[in-house]
Design a protein that fits this description.
mainly alpha, Arc Repressor Mutant, subunit A, globular, 209 residues, Tetracycline Repressor, domain 2, 2 domains
Length: 209
């Protein structure tokens, strides 16, 4: 590999991911195209195929990055040397989720599409990051709630992970959705990501300890 090519590859991958992330802030997964992503980069659209074969692979790489950052947050907490009550742990985990709005948005939408249209090796890389984030959550439980046994930790994980999938739609509501709920007679009480996650995690931990 020529000198500098690895740095160039990494820089261009990062530029593609940044372009996709920017478009996703205001656009939808189904409407964003490789052409649009390419127009946001400093190199030709066809060059994207040197790094990603499909739009879904780009989104999957964004998703992978979010899981890696989430796991890093939790591992840093475990290594801080702090002693936390279950309430404080619930707060820390809720804040860690609050810092990852992109992860929560991606979790709530189009995961099957991303996985179905990505190469197996890209899917494996994503699953490695997902697995690392799950282990980081379990590590937090082992560190801060050592009285929990393996079965209780698994119960926590299998309750928390599905909950996280639905967190974004409950905390990010559009004006159109609000209007429809009002007309349908549905009472909606707004809660932030932190508030909803904290209440759930605290309640879950309370039932296990």
């Amino acid at each position: 590999m020529p000198k500098g090519s690895e740095e160039l590859t990494n820089a261009r991958r990062e530029e593609i991911l940044a372009a996709c992330r920017k478009l996703y802030e205001t656009g939808s997964f189904k409407d964003i195209t490789l052409k649009e992503i390419g127009q946001q980069t400093s190199f030709t659209r066809t060059s994207i195929y040197n790094y990603f074969e499909t739009k879904e692979e780009i989104f999957l790489a964004l998703f992978q990055r979010e899981y890696e950052l989430f796991a890093a947050d939790l591992n840093a907490l475990c290594e801080s040397g702090e002693t936390l009550t279950t309430g404080e742990l619930a707060s820390m985990l809720a804040h860690a989720l609050e810092r990852r709005p992109l992860m929560l948005k991606l979790l709530s939408m189009n995961l099957y599409d991303m996985e179905a249209n990505s190469r197996p090796e890209r899917l494996v890389e994503f699953k490695v990051a997902y697995g690392a984030s799950s282990r980081a959550i379990e590590r937090c439980l082992q560190t801060f709630v050592p009285t929990l046994g393996e079965e209780e930790r698994q119960t926590f994980l299998y309750a928390l992970l599905p909950f996280i999938y639905g967190l974004y739609p409950y905390t990010v509501v559009t004006d159109r959705q609000r209007q429809a709920m009002e007309e349908a007679g549905i009472s909606y009480v707004y809660m932030s990501t932190y508030e909803m996650a904290f209440r759930f995690i605290k309640t879950l931990l309370g039932g296990l300890t």
